Input
Amino acid sequence: MPDAVAVSLRNVVKRYGTVEAVSGISLEVRRGEFLAIIGPSGCGKTSTLRMIAGLESPTSGDIYIDGQRVNDLKPWKRDTPLVWQNFALFPHMSVAKNVEYGLRMRREPKETRGARVAKVLDTVGLKALADRSVTQLSGGQKQRVGLARALVLNPKVLLLDEPLGALDAKISRSMQGELRRLQRELLITFVYVTHNQSEALAMADRIAVMDAGMIQQVGSPLDVYRMPQNRFVADFVGTNNIFSGHVQGIEDDRLLVTTPQGVFRVPAARRDGAKIGEAVEFVVSADRITTHMEGVAEENAVEGKITAIEVIGSVVSLFLELPDGYELRLQKSEQRVQGVALSIGDTVAASWSTQAAFVLPETTEANGLSG
Amino acid sequence: MDRLITYGYRLFILLCFTFIFAPILALVAFAFNDNRFPSLPWKGFTLRWFSQIIRDPSIVAAALNSLLVAICAAVIATVLGGAAAYCVTRWDFKGKSTYLGIVAAPPCIPLIILGLALLMYLKQIGLSGSLTAVTISHAVLASPFALGIVRMRLAEMDPNIEQAAWNLGANEWSAIRTIILPQAGPAFIAAFLLSMTVSWDEFIISWFVSGFSETLPVNIWHTFSAHVSAEVNAIGTVAFVLSIALVIVAQLLFFRLGRKGRRAPVLEEGDGNA
Output
């Protein structure tokens, strides 16, 4: 169903001189979906976005928008407006002139331009500031202009490059909700690049995790969060404890795994036919580990000393040092550890259920490329 | 102690200014001195040297030549320098720093060498001894200044905004017209005015290549190497006032523009001393 695909990348490679920023990625963005591309800086996500916009051209591979191959289409011939991290507004123009710019360049008749500008300014809540100079706006207001300037063109695909990266945390959070609402209402395909996984997890329909120029996993936020396909994703998304060891024994639907931290049980389902001695990697999410203070003891247990306690809002992070030096991370809701005296240096018994362990697929190379 | 240092600074600056401007001030003062020879004693205030130079057709013709050359050379220098500034800001290319070093060279070459070189070259292509020759030579001399001024302004601009314009449907020319030029406009005017000053003041190259079409500095040289008259002070005053006016307007345009949108930093005083 090619009709359901808005943007399609096929084996796209981008090299700058000898540096390979994007190493052959294939990705399909479905019409009307909110796709987030996340990854650490330098992973190739921004290069990918700029290639979709035509601001960079791929070294090899093909890019299709609406089924049309656009490799050689100039940026001004494309319908892929971009919202920039640093806003990139035109400082010598008013808010309304900034928003009108794209319509003017597309030779939209003057009579209809005013109404469209007014409507989109209303949508982003900037109606009152239409005649203000953009240099007088706050960061959040500037990014609304950036958004309005793109939305006024009624694009099929909207590209966003870390749009909330330059805003403070509170504004960033309130704009997350707004972006999500706008995307749903206007039914525009969003391709949203960010290094901030919580933005992506909160807003996106699907997430593509990139590292070292490759797509590591594509899936729903929950899939990416709970079922990482490789070590990189497990490490980058969420807060996971990664264990590696060898199969020591097999009991029905579980594997017994020896690791430097101890012997643990993990579900065997994802490793059917595993043999004794085979290498196994599994992750346990920090929020699935309980402590003895909570009065719960699960099947897989370790003991360690608290080395650090971080309270961020309603979440408490504990860092335990296990006897072999491994740093185990735990996350508790602040409410659950209320009244429990925790201090650095205390010895804590931590445990998790076998079902909480997620076994990574056998190959640690990129897989599940197209979603 | 602090106060002493402040006074010291002020005195130093005053001395610098005196050192630089005393000769010029003397020239301006003597232009109004009612004495046939441009020297002391002071014999009273007069404007007759000014009225004499206005009535001297060779001086007026030379001044008009100079003005024409200055305007044409400034137009050429601004267009060439501005375009070069845009290119070096926008694109990286092999040998960019070498290129910038070479284009910045003309003002660093001794003018007598540059003058000789231009004379020989222009003679080859049959242009020497004309105002066209002077115009071309001055455009060569002034282009690096124009490039420098426009480049500084372009480098301050957010490089993303041009791409943002492309992204919204503006092709390269439209983006330059609607985004780059409106913002860099004052810098272009400053470049034009400064190029004009460079040309207006220039003597050595003009003397080599102008032939019978004298510019004002060449005329001054020819006239007053023959006989000394107080008129020279009047001409000097007019030439100086025009130059300084051009430079001041250029500076105002450039710095006012630079300040726009930037707030002066607030200095914090006296912490850690208590």
Notes: Chain B has eleven helices and no strands. Residues 261-274 of chain B have pLDDT under 50 and may be disordered. The CA atoms of residues 157 and 183 of chain B lie 8 Å apart.
